[in-house]
């Protein structure tokens, strides 16, 4: 394709069609079903779907078909199909559901108040993943406006990704007549390492999360009366955690794997690009140090080694309301990140046995709210496809394509790999450093996204 014509297309359409449309999408307060008990009845996800459908209609892409698939419960999946030349069948994945709004947005911004500051578009769903349908359809439109033949393209837009994709397998099955058998599955939910190149995701960790409740009495008791007799449930829970996590190193030998040498080299290379900025996005308080000071080791801690975070607690009152009592129970929300290739379900069985066997003082342990998802590792790309990516990245960013591991979890990648066994699974995305997804101040960096749309258009055209 003609790079000059692509740049002309982006100049003419980026603000009016992409930015303005994404702003309107941000204004729709639709959440993921895990955070909205009325997800299927309040009409918000329907409003988001209809808005994207209207955007597609307004682009007037000849031959583009829209399909809304629902399961028996009514959970929706939106699919666009462009038949193309059928030389290759490309599945492009994104999602329309959003994380909760949260408090703490910087002044002048808000979760449903889209504002552009220094090139960053703030708002819930801007980077995760509201940009995907608008970017993909504009990339498609650009190629067709240049008379470029395209492969068969199927844009799949899920509505439950932020809830762990509980119905995605059944919805993919219901959509099989539209999706067929992809040659490439391009997941647009991933992150760029920096804004200087096109980036592929090489690995993603898996997730294992559940609630651990430790109970010792039927009701709380005055600490002056029973302290020294009734064991403290919070400390028992901590002692159980210490069985799997080394309290000083924070390593979890139970789930560790041998890291392939190629990824050790990747860690050295990517961390060298960051230099002194390796930890800048973590906002450490003055004097606080990371678990591993060496950037390459920290990279491996985040991308390959298992980790544990206590992300919530029940039974602990605020300090302003805490009396002198020994509480009856403590519930901790535990979130393990697992190395690529480690089974999340097998890991759960292991840790469940450890947490429920020989519990101190025979305290009662309950486990609930299980969430599992396996990690993923990109397979070796063929030379032709890698050459295409390098050429496109060089054209738009003056650098070859890069790859790096993601510390978070996108179980959908493994789901795609398991379902479409012949397909190459590719993780890319426009969100990059400082995107702050899931938290206040979620944002999308627009200058990079503009180039990304152009690059993606050229990649699709190159797959014919």
Care to give the gist of this entry?
The protein has 464 residues and is an alpha+beta fold.
List keywords for this structure.
alpha+beta; hydrolase; peptidase activity; 464 residues; Peptidase_M20; Peptidase M20 dimerisation domain-containing protein; globular; 6-stranded mixed beta sheet; metal-binding; 22% strand; 35% helix
Structural description of this entry:
There is one protein chain. With 464 residues, the protein is of the alpha+beta class. It is built from 13 helices and 18 strands. The chain has helices at residues 3-27, 44-59, 126-145, 168-174, 176-179, 223-226, 233-241, 261-274, 295-303, 344-356, 383-397, 411-419, 446-462, and strands spanning 64-70, 76-82, 89-95, 115-117, 120-122, 152-158, 184-187, 199-204, 206-215, 221-222, 307-314, 325-326, 329-338, 364-373, 376-377, 402-406, 424-427, 443-445. The strands form five sheets. It has a six-stranded mixed beta sheet with strand order 1-2-6-3-7-17, sandwiched between helices. Strands 11-13-9-14 form a four-stranded antiparallel beta sheet. Strand 4 (115-117) and strand 5 form a beta hairpin. Helix 1 (3-27) packs antiparallel against helix 3 (126-145) and helix 3 crosses helix 13 (446-462). The radius of gyration is 24 Å and the shape is globular. It starts with a helix and ends with a helix.
